[in-house]
Amino acid sequence: MNLVMFGPPGSGKGTQAERIRNRYRLRHISTGDLLRDAVARKTELGRKVESILASGALVSDDLVLALMRDAIAQVGNDAQYAGWLLDGFPRTIGQAEGLDAILADLKQEIGALVVLDVKREALVDRLSGRRTCTQCKTVFHVKVNPPQVDGVCDKCGGALVQREDDRPETIAKRLEVYAAQTQPVLAHYRGRLPVHEIDGELPVDEVTRRIECVLA
Are 73 and 107 in contact (CB under 8 A)? Predict the structure, then answer.
């Protein structure tokens, strides 16, 4: 089973990806993890990525797709996985077309897209209430999952802060970018493979149950 999971920032996509990955023995592949891993392992691609990041430039689609190709190919040769789950990728039509070419070459295909739908107001509330530990990176929420002591991480005692990309003005921009990029990508796949839209505002366990139902 090979899946692509979409959802705007704050939709709970990461949480559901972890649950679905474990349930179906899928390798959870995200572009951020691939970039960090390549840099850490000092591969040829990793050295290119490191120099680009150091300069402050964006990593090109060509490099991202090359990393994605390697990761997908590795899954096919690893018996511990029954497939892969792409987290928030592809983000643009160009990336979608590049992924199509990679999968055709590897003789693999996407089984389904899972899209978590959450209203804008709920997304802003979720994201603006997040507080992240400066040391262990554990994430809390001022309403849903508050720390025992305000501003202090329960796990390591580190200071909790609101990340720049969780501030209301930044959230608005992130959601605009997501809407502009994602709608064309979803349209690219509709009619070609199953696209399952799930209400991401439901309780976490219910969202998981509904995803499992459509994948059954």
Answer: no
Please confirm, yes or no, whether 13 is among the known catalytic residues: yes
Instruction: Determine the Cα–Cα distance for residues 13 and 5; give it in Å rounded to an integer.
Output: 7
Q: Identify the structural domains of the chain with CATH numbers, from first to last.
A: 3-119+176-215 (3.40.50.300)
- Out of 137, 163, 173, 190, the active site residue is 163
Q: Read out DSSP for 124-149? A: HHHHHTEEEETTT--EEETTTB--SB
Two structure tokens written together for 108: 């693999």
DSSP string, 47-110: HHHHHHHHHTPPPPHHHHHHHHHHHHHHHHT-TT-SEEEEES---SHHHHHHHHHHHHHHT---
> Among the options 13, 27, 126, 131, which is catalytic?
13
pLDDT at residue number 82? 95
Query: Which is catalytic among the residues 21, 27, 126, 130?
Result: 130
Annotation marks residue 130 as catalytic: yes
Q: Which of 36, 48, 174, 210 is catalytic?
A: 174
pTM: 0.82
Sign of CA dihedral 111, 187, 68, 99: positive
- Report d(CA 176, CA 120) in Å as an integer: 10
Using 50, 70 and 90 to split pLDDT, how confident is the model at 23?
A: very high
Q: Is 190 a catalytic residue?
A: no
174 is annotated as an active-site residue: yes
Q: Which residue is catalytic, options 19, 36, 91, 210?
A: 91
25 is catalytic: no
